[in-house]
Amino acid sequence: MKRVFVSLTSILLIAATAIGIISCSDDDNDIYRNLYPNALVTVKPVDANSFYMQLDDNITLKPTNMTSSPYGNREVRALVNFDYVNQDASPYNRAVWVNWIDSILTKPAVPITDLQPSVEYGDDAVEIVRDWVTIAEDGYLTLRFRTLWGLRGRPHSVNLATGVNPDDAYEVEFFHDANGDTPTHYGDAIVAFRLDGLPDTDGKTVKLKLKWKSFSGYRWAEFDYCTGDATIAPNNDMLKMRPAIEIE
Q1: Smallest Cα–Cα separation from 231: which of 130, 127, 115, 122?
Q2: Which of 186, 173, 174, 177 is nearest to 156 (CA)?
Q3: pLDDT on residue 121
Q4: Are 128 and 145 in contact (CB under 8 A)?
Q5: What mean pLDDT comes out for the span 155-178?
Q6: How confident is the model at residue 236 (pLDDT cuts 50, 70, 90)?
Q7: Which string of DSSP letters, residue by residue, matches the chain?
Q8: Would you place residue 239 in the very low, low, confident or very high pLDDT band (cuts 50, 70, 90)?
Q9: pLDDT in the model for residue 178
Q10: What residues contact 161, with CB distance under 8 A and at least 6 apart?
Q11: Residues 38 and 80: beta-carbon distance below 8 Å
């Protein structure tokens, strides 16, 4: 299984390197403004030399300073800092200049086939953070979560399980396995799960119920979910940057 470094600190670091992409502005204020992400997108490759970004369920973005996707033919969720530019966006909605982009660990949800899924997926506690990146949109559930990490510990594993409630196909459960990591400090990470295994809502809005094991017991959160529509967690809880952490 591929290991991926994902943290809020890495978002700032990627702004400095920007994978070779240089901001089009020389203004010092723009440099500070461009340190932080201003959008969460789905990177959608078209072919080897073309891709676009899905900003939400209605708006598509055409990057004018990039041709091929930095992630090859993989569709991934990503944090991005961009500026709108006055250029032809056809066949998409808006043209943008990408200042930097950083992918989020993106993986499919897994159907539960075991009566004791925690044996396979782990039962270590986490907290789901209400934040602008904790959102269900474009066929994905993206989550910012907080847990205990070791200073130089093992990579943690996270999964989203479907089929956990035979009476509700839209109930899902978040599982976290610290893989024996020695806990020393709290840190945050971001992960995105594909929801294509859920039944299509056929244009109706249903409750997507998320369950997870927190440090104070099991907790639930509900999203108004409609296949193809975006719903966001209501509160913003921006925290200090944390050290780089590793999840898979």
Answers
A1: 130
A2: 177
A3: 87
A4: yes
A5: 94
A6: very low
A7: ---EE--HHHHHHHHHHGGG---S---HHHHHHTTS--EEEEEEEEETTEEEEE-SSS-EEEESS--S-TTTT--EEEEEEEEE-SS--TTSSEEEEEEEEEE-EEEE-EE--SS-HHHHH-----EE--STT-EEETTEEEEEEEEEE-TT-PPBEEEEEE-S-TT-TTEEEEEEE-TT----EEEEEEEEEE-TTSPP-TT--EEEEEEEEEBTEEEEEEEEE-TT--EE-S-----------EE-
A8: very low
A9: 94
A10: 109, 110, 111, 112, 117, 121, 172, 173, 174, 175
A11: yes
Could you tell me if 129 and 229 are in contact, meaning their C-beta atoms sit under 8 angstroms apart? Answer: no
Could you count the other beta carbons within 10 Å of the beta carbon of residue 142?
Answer: 23
Cα separation, 80 vs 178, in Å, equals 28
Distance from C-alpha of 102 to C-alpha of 87, rounded to nearest angstrom:
24
Per the confidence metrics, is the pTM higher than 0.70? yes
Domains and CATH numbers, the chain: 4-103 (2.40.50.500), 106-247 (2.60.40.2370)
Q: CA distances (Å), 126 to each of 70, 148, 219, in order?
A: 31, 8, 10
State the Cα–Cα distance between residues 213 and 224, nearest whole angstrom: 21
Reply yes or no on whether the pLDDT at 148 is more than 80.
yes
Q: Is the pLDDT of residue 21 over 50?
A: no
User: What pLDDT score was predicted for residue 112?
Assistant: 85
Res. 114 pLDDT band, cuts 50 70 90:
low
